[in-house]
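The instructor's notes for this session suggest beginning with a concrete chain rather than abstract definitions. Hand out the sequence below and ask the class to guess, before any prediction is shown, which regions might be ordered.
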Amino acid sequence: MIGLIVRRFLQLILLLLGISFLVFMSMHIAPGDPATIIGGPTASASDLEAIRDNLGLDRPVIVQYADYLGGILQGDFGYSFQTGQSVTDAIITRFPNTIKLATASMIVAIIIGIVTGIISAIKQNSWIDLSSTTFALAGVSIPNFWLGAMLILVFAVNLQWLPVGGLSAPIYTIEGMKELILPAITLGTASAALIARMSRSAMLEVIRSDYIRTAKAKGVKQRSLIWIHALRNAMIPVVTVIGINFGGLLGGTIITEQVFAINGIGRLMIDAIAARDFPIVQGTVLLVAAIFVFVNLIVDVIYAFIDPRITYN
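After discussion, reveal the predicted structure:
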């Protein structure tokens, strides 16, 4: 296990190095000049040249990238072109909202997905199974922006049960929990549908196994058979889906944060891309990529606890 963790951390460094290079080059190749955006329409040619010189944009791209890597090794991710704020400070300010949203969405997805998938497998070919399959198809198909808008229209505007958007209240308060309900459902629905489908397939495969039939023949109760003997083995592929989806949720918060006016990493990234704010874009992408790889490492560790037969030699 220790060897696995060391290998994954080495892979993490190489992966982040590759991602930083691709993002850095993509931002410089993309149309649009940060100096023009900062200077505005009234800026003269000399003003634009001075801005480029101040930001270091007049140097060769490779030299800029080498300086950027050197700064990262010293813990310096640069400063925003637009505000002059440290990239680290900008991320620290926005990241808690994204983590709260992604975590709440994952909790919604896990609860709905696993429970629905297990019940659907137990009641195979019943109306419950049909409803679960329909829910999974709808959850994957419905766009986040449309679902979010409909939830706002129904529960915030018409019924006035929940706030329209924003995450201003502390999470441990009633108001803070209310603020999370609609965006968490919006973001977690697609993941819940995928987890439900995977839970159903995995549970159906496990309950048809020989050891389950043997346990049933010995008189083991149905509840113990499902929740103790079958569930643990069925969870291995489900944990994989959960891990991948959690990493995806961090990047997928972009649309949801826009719809619900949440000041998170996704919204920060969108604003930075529109303003060609290279340091902010690079910092946020690296953060999301690092978390995605780290979550997958945690998933591999969880495998060993779920099934001790799994080795990583």
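Then share the key points. The mean pLDDT is 81. The radius of gyration is 24 Å.
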